[in-house]
Amino acid sequence: MNVVLIEDEKLAAQGLWEQIQRLRPRAKCLAVLPSVSDAVDWFRSANQLPDLGFFDIQLGDGLSFDIGEQVELSFPIVFTTAYDQYALRAFEWHSIDYLLKPVEPRRLAKAIEKWEVQRAATPDQGLWQELAGMLRQKPTYKDRFLVRKGDSLLPVALDQVAYFYSEHKVTWMVLREAGHKHAVNYTLEQLEQMLDPRLFFRLNRSCFSSLGAVRSLTVYSGSRLKAILQPHDRTEVVSRDRVADIKEWLGQ
Predict the structure, then answer these.
(1) Whether 113 and 62 share a structural domain
(2) Which of 2, 38, 178, 189 has the fewest beta carbons closer than 10 A?
């Protein structure tokens, strides 16, 4: 079993590899890669791909999902992370398992066994690539929400939503028509996995806007932008690292 570890913490990488060796003494580690950029460079030039990858999700220069946007990953992956919020996105990939840190030996053993069973059942590499392609198909995004109004629950289609914002630990949905707002039982981090990025953009840590809600953008201090959202002429400052992205998004 040849493996690659994507992990930016040396102690975590060392501990994981020691666990793998105890479970499968004949395993070979082809590389330990600490960042998205290092991983992309390695996969582009590698003469041998791993049988199985162990990917931490949050790396110093991005998320390990970004690797697959730049190079083709045709092998199964076990995601290892301290956060549970990426589970849905992880299983849109050809992931074998999703292990929360600290990784328990029992869970790691089950993940490897799961991979071995699948490998035995699908030894044909062409078939595996076909299955991987199916799992990498366009994800399904949420197109409606259920909100409470008094004692009633009302369905709200996503195309009625102007923007979402978080305030005092409550996430609010603001509707285009009449500017009504409703509380929703999701954090912005959860919404980030649910909303189609072509239709909604995260302006900053506290606000997601639809395309039609952005009335104007003006230059703000520190190379940032100020967005005016309708309805209610709500003002939101676009994070500096999102300025180029929002310009591209609005011009798509």
Answers:
(1) yes
(2) 178
Within 10 Å of residue 23's Cβ, how many Cβ atoms? 15
Q: Tell me which residue of 82, 86, 234 sits closest to 166, measured CA to CA.
A: 234
Cα of first residue to Cα of last residue in the chain, in angstroms, is 44
Give residue-wise pLDDT tens across range 81-111: 887 777 777 776 768 888 888 888 899 999 9
- The single residue listed with the structure tokens 């991005």 is 62
Query: How many C-beta atoms surround the C-beta of residue 68 within 10 A?
Result: 18
Rounded CA-CA distance 50/2 in Å is: 5
Are 123 and 174 within one domain?
no
Global pTM reads 0.49
Same domain, 125 and 158: no
Bridge partners, residue 181, by sequence: 174
Nearest to 118 by CA among 67, 51, 54: 51
DSSP secondary structure code for residue 140 in this structure: P
Full domain range(s) for residue 193: 144-250
Same domain, 29 and 131: yes
Q: Are residues 108 and 186 in the same domain?
A: no
Q: How far is the C-alpha of 88 from the C-alpha of 100, rounded, in Å?
A: 14
In this predicted model, what pLDDT tens digit does every residue of 1-57 receive, in sequence order? 999 999 999 999 999 999 999 999 999 999 999 999 999 999 998 888 899 999 999
